[in-house]
Amino acid sequence: MRRVLAILALLVLVAYLATGIAQVRPGERAVVRRFGRVVAQPSPGLWVGLPWGMDRVDRVPVNFVRRLNVGFQPEADDFAAVPTGQMLTGDQNVVNVQVAIDYSVADGDEVVNFVVNRDRIEPAVTRATESALHEWVAAHTVDEVLLTGKIALRGWLARQVQERIADYGLGVRVQAASVVYLAAPEDVRPDFEMVMIAQSRISTQMNEARQHAEQLQKAAEGEASAKRQSAEAYAEGRRRAAIAEADAFTGRLEQYRRLQAENADVLGAIWWSEMGRLLASMKNNGQVDILDDRLGADGLDITQFARPKKKKE
What we know:
Blueprint: H1 2-18, E1 21-24, E2 28-34, E3 37-40, E4 45-48, E5 55-61, E6 66-71, E7 86-88, E8 94-105, H2 110-116, H3 118-138, H4 142-165, E9 172-183, H5 189-262, H6 266-284, E10 295-296, E11 299-300
Antiparallel strand pairs: 1-4, 2-3, 2-5, 6-8, 7-8, 8-9, 10-11
Helix pairs in contact: 3-4
């Protein structure tokens, strides 16, 4: 009998000592507290410490994202005098807001703060979120809240909540914020929906008008660009023609100067050469005629000339 009791006592002792062995899985961080004081933060693997009552091992999944809903709860607040999450806008209207805050354990030694303050985390995050929501809603009109709140609150709310809980040392980091529910109270919701529909139509028409204006502007810019390119091409052509004409004149001038050095009467020869070509061209066009064969003893009698006939076109 004593032997059996000894074996049982030994088994109980072994089982008790085994409570000091813990397996930390991948993706987890552990915090070991010995008589309430943090003594270790083992990484994934097998941890062997003192048995239960002396050591307490808290394993925390650091990659796990937790979600906390804050604000209006339609089912729970049906009979409440002032429903949770009902907020006053800047133009003295009431809206119901519910948001979801996603948070996870922060990096490094912050896991210790998470374990120590685990019971304080959600109340603190809830109060910080409600405070930020009231601030944002009060700074906007009801139309702005209902029309833009779901988008505008995403990034702004996550940053605000993280800033407000930073000094608490909770060991958590806010990952994201999203709007779960955003609407006017039930008794005035139809009127707000009609207003939102009208505003949506106005916004659609404004967008269409803006797009049409942009199309007209692009067409005008394209036409102006084409005309500008045409003008630049014409100006470039005129410039090249002027340069070519100036170069030709300069070449002829240099040629004349060389010839003049050899023959002083070269200018007269050039003049008569040009005049000969000009008079020949004018004769071919019927503008002048040679009168030498019509000279008489008394000189040139102009009465014997008939007016030149016009050429048939």
